[in-house]
Amino acid sequence: MHVMGGVQSGVQAVHHTTGLPWWATIAVATIGVKISLLPVVVYQAGHMDRMRAAWPEIQILRGYLATSLEEIPQERVLERWRKYKVFFSGARGVLGLHGTHLRGMFATPLVNLPVFITFVWSIRGMLRDGTVPGLDTGEADTVHSLMLPIIGTLCTYTSLEIVKMKGATGWMKFFQDGMQTFIILMLPWVSTFPQGVFMYWIPSAVFQMGQTYTMKNNKVRELLGLKPLGLPPREAAGATPSLAPAPAPAPIPAPKAIGG
């Protein structure tokens, strides 16, 4: 409750300071919060650079895992699980050697999701309690009740489409497609939100789209000290040691018999 109260006080302070209508106040506060989170975005991008450098080594470990699992029947579950544990331990070690970890690679969603939920529920609370006159009136009310939920849903769907990994397969593709399907299925519930909630939701999603496009620009990445995109992992991050098995040494010829 203290966090939500702080958000509500901050939004009211922006309104009283700027004199903007409530819908614009929420939009301005949203952009301000998103800008304040940009260091987290750069932090995650740096970890993703290091992840791309580590990926070839992890793929080699996956190859070793697949080979070792071929020798173990499906019924020997415990023995197969031990192989997976060794793989996960090795993958963590490779990530550590490259100076990255899973928390760093998911820093932005781990921060953005709580912020999004806090803002949405804070604004809903302000509307429900009626503590802020005018928040549910003005220009937002002139829009059809379904227009803002549809726009917000489309913006979020498009934002997820922009960040989708090209060529994703397996569980990653399932996760990406599942997230977009979930967003669409949530539309009936989302349409019950007060109009003021979308004054945060829509600017946040639009800012996210612009941020994603900007972070894909190699000139911007260079200014931020990040590696350029579009290069093979080893070129982008420098040479990395290979974990591929070394070739077998050439056989040593047997010594000739004495006096032969």
UniProtKB/TrEMBL annotation:
Residues 22-216 form the Membrane insertase YidC/Oxa/ALB C-terminal domain. It is found in: Membrane. The keyword Protease does not apply. It comes from the Eukaryota. One of its GO terms (molecular function) is membrane insertase activity. Residues 237-260 are annotated as: Disordered. Pfam families: 60KD_IMP. Residues 244-254 have a biased composition (Pro residues). The chain crosses the membrane at residues 20-43, 102-123, 143-160, 181-202. PANTHER family: CYTOCHROME C OXIDASE ASSEMBLY PROTEIN COX18, MITOCHONDRIAL, OXA1. Belongs to the OXA1/ALB3/YidC family. This is Oxa1-like homolog, mitochondrial inner membrane insertase.
